[in-house]
Amino acid sequence: MTGQTATTERPAAAPRPARPKRPNGQWLVDGKEPLNHNEAFKQEDNGLNVRERIEQVYSKEGFDSIPGDDLHGRFRWWGLYTQRKPGIDGGRTATLEPHELEDKFFMLRVRIDGGALTTEQLRVIATISTEFARDSADITDRQNIQLHWVQVEDVPEIWRRLEAVGLGTTEACGDVPRVVLGSPVAGIAADEILDPSPVIEEINRRYLGVPELANLPRKFKTALTGHPSQDVVHEINDVAFVGLEHPELGAGFDVWVGGGLSANPRLGERLGVFATAEQAPDVWHGVASIFRDYGYRRLRNKARLKFLLADWGPEKFRQVLQDEYLGYDLPDGPPAPQPRMPGDHVGVHAQKDGRYYVGAAPYVGRVNGETLAAVADLAESVGSQRVRLTPHQKLLVLDIPEESLEPVTRGLRDLGLDPKPSPFRRSTIACTGIEYCKLAIVETKATAARAIDELEERLADVPDLRPLTLHLNGCPNSCARIQTADIGLKGQLVMNDDGEQVPGFQVHLGGGLASEDREEAGLGRTVRGLKVTSDDLPDYVERVTRRYLSETEPGAEAERESFASWARRADEEVLK
């Protein structure tokens, strides 16, 4: 074999065996063997059972008697979280253990389905605030009221007072069906398509606090509206029902599933079905049951319904819902029309009965017990006994006679609740922030209030500026819906001009939900390197607002391109 080199052929490598697929913890696929500690403690003892121990043991023996799985887990099933210990800066949030971050006080969340309160209920919450919570109270963007500085010793008495007037904290937190968002003008709006209140009441009557739905993979958020403004942020809930008029079947709901934000935002999707008001509770239960049975439980950061929908798609989800849970097919349905008016209900509006309601804006939901009691007094002074909270941290007083509008609007303004707020006072929301939240990195409420005051002065020369949504969140979890704001701000530590690490925000621009300005929801964009310190926030918002105004067509403000549309198409340098 002169001139040739002998070669030896290597045998082909055997194919690697496929790795066994790791279970996702889906009960109807993988069985119920718990795959992490959260799933284990939920199976060991249902979270609803902790109430008896709070009443009989912990309220008598004090904070130090509470074991960890109850304190950091099951207490949430009754609306209780430990709050942040004062004086711990945001740089230490991710480095300390829960017991190092927490104080021996609780945030207590009062569950207010549909945001509906009587003045008697509002006054009870106000009294609890002043007697047991250091006069604290925040209206949340889930239509709840949160109190702080609550001690475990006082919880049974708080429950007694709330339940005496038909309120409670059942499943206000935890891996359960959370508060049901409802249109704040349900049953009263002159232009309402249908009243969702009976559906909300029926869902709660059947399913609130029942063991069958008290162990879900994660939280489960619901929204219902029958108002054409689509006023319940339906695109970011696990399940939502949006009122519309079906051309053949009459008034009912367009059904959405799988929305949610946090660190992995995903907008919900239409199932393409039409549900009547009579069917809606069964459809709700079917969706919640799919989440319970097929939701991913192995990793908590993948355990929301949006991840299951992303894998299944709406067609499979609909089929499973109909075949395995409803036992009948739902008819196809059209989408609800685009909203033609704002959904925050701020200002004076006519009711269908000839009376009026007034919507007013506090500073980013921050109120107190004294203010809430004064609102109850003001409403009753003109013959009203109803108040509503909104998913935009606003408050409405209902049933006002026309002749009483001026004293009510003046009275609300005197209480710091403005019925005719500036664009930024109207459209700014903020989460709890580092003041109380163990997850937060930066302060939000005071930062937002300061920014509102400065922007009102700085932009006073733009009298017709339409509201720009400004959302501040203290951490990446997006309780304040930063990805769906014109200007969304995610709290983090940033470098200032002196090279120092200080509280600040990553900026998201051009997000929004379906509204009169946009046909469908969309998430905001991020611009590389676009961060702002808390101190520089008013400077940045003024700068980007003036650039928006200078680069869009002048003329009637209603005809101007929206900020979100401009921000999505603008060059990055213009947005900095």
TrEMBL record:
It catalyses: hydrogen sulfide + 6 oxidized [2Fe-2S]-[ferredoxin] + 3 H2O = sulfite + 6 reduced [2Fe-2S]-[ferredoxin] + 7 H(+). InterPro entries: NIR_SIR_4Fe-4S, NiRdtase/SiRdtase_haem-b_fer, Nit/Sulf_reduc_fer-like_dom_sf, NO2/SO3_Rdtase_4Fe4S_dom, NO2/SO3_Rdtase_4Fe4S_sf, NO2/SO3_Rdtase_FeS/sirohaem_BS. It holds the Pfam family NIR_SIR. One of its GO terms (molecular function) is sulfite reductase (ferredoxin) activity. Keywords: 4Fe-4S, Heme, Iron, Iron-sulfur, Metal-binding, Oxidoreductase, Thioether bond. Residues 1-32 are annotated as: Disordered. Residues 100-165, 349-413 form the Nitrite/Sulfite reductase ferredoxin-like domain. The keyword 4Fe-4S applies. Residues 174-327, 425-550 form the Nitrite/sulphite reductase 4Fe-4S domain. The keyword Oxidoreductase applies. Signal peptide: none annotated. Its EC number is 1.8.7.1. Its cofactor is [4Fe-4S] cluster. Belongs to the nitrite and sulfite reductase 4Fe-4S domain family. Catalyzes the reduction of sulfite to sulfide, a step in the biosynthesis of sulfur-containing amino acids and cofactors. This is assimilatory sulfite reductase (ferredoxin). The lineage of its organism: Bacteria, Bacillati, Actinomycetota, Actinomycetes, Micrococcales.
